[in-house]
Write a structure and sequence with these properties.
10 helices, binds adenosine-5'-diphosphate, binds nickel (II) ion, Cyclin A, domain 1, mainly alpha, 2 domains, Methane Monooxygenase Hydroxylase, Chain G, domain 1
Length: 213
């Protein structure tokens, strides 16, 4: 099996796995991350495309929000990669890229090191900035029985980084902080307009909430 065939097989597996997902981490999220990663990677000819594409496709496959047994799911991913004939060295690199993707309130102890890790993390974070990110946030909040917003002032929201209670709170806890964490200039450029759009959205949201617009 050549590299392209391996990627197509894993893509099919992930499409099957994620079609039932309804908390904002569905197949289309995976597909966007995969596409974004490929787009950024075109600027880095020395980066390993197989590592990047497989890490992007598999990045949510053993996330604790998706599976109940993370260790078991990680073993399944490892097996899948072994079955496709990848070297142990490449498998470890892919798993590291995946482990380094997560935000975890900015406290993930595993940080991206290589350009491949950074591209995959940027691609995932881009999908948490902008119009689609807003939709994902409300879907996630709804799926977790959280309210849209409970009337805190913007000052409180800005200081409430530990609060994760409401969809609007999540903008302050995470979404608005992401642009500054991006590694590649290409991702930063895409993030700019998306970040501004989220700010405009919040301005309109609060104006409507106050009955001003
Ligand atoms: P990561 O994989 O980078 O740690 P997550 O999977 O936690 O990111 O989050 C991906 C997206 O899911 C977020 O950008 C957001 O849209 C949504 N989400 C995650 N946690 C929450 C939350 N507590 N409230 C609302 N939306 C959330
Ligand atoms: Ni993701």
């Amino acid at each position: 099996m050549n590299e392209k065939e391996i990627i197509i097989e894993i893509q099919k597996e992930m499409k099957k796995f994620f079609t039932q997902e309804t908390t904002g981490h569905d197949w289309y999220h995976i597909e966007r991350v995969w596409k974004n990663a490929q787009k950024i990677a075109t600027h880095y000819p020395k980066a390993n495309p197989l590592q990047i594409e497989l890490a992007a496709l598999l990045h949510d496959r053993y996330d604790h929000k998706i599976v109940s047994n993370v260790e078991q799911a990680k073993l399944e991913v490892r097996d899948l990669l072994v079955q496709h004939g990848l070297t142990k060295e490449l498998i470890e690199k892919i798993l590291y890229s995946i482990d380094a993707v997560g935000f975890r309130n900015g406290k993930n102890p595993i940080q991206p090191i290589t350009i491949e890790d950074k591209i995959v993390q940027d691609a995932d974070r881009l999908d948490a900035i902008g119009a689609i990110a807003i939709a994902r946030t409300f879907v996630y909040s709804g799926a977790h029985q959280r309210p849209i917003y409970t009337g805190e002032t913007q000052e409180v929201l800005e200081k409430a980084h530990e609060l994760e209670d409401t969809a609007i709170g999540h903008f302050y806890e995470k979404l608005l902080t992401l642009s500054d964490t991006l590694h590649t200039p290409e991702a930063r450029e895409i993030a700019k307009g998306r970040h501004e759009f989220m700010k405009e959205y919040l301005t309109q949201f609060f104006a409507e909430w106050e009955g001003l617009k």
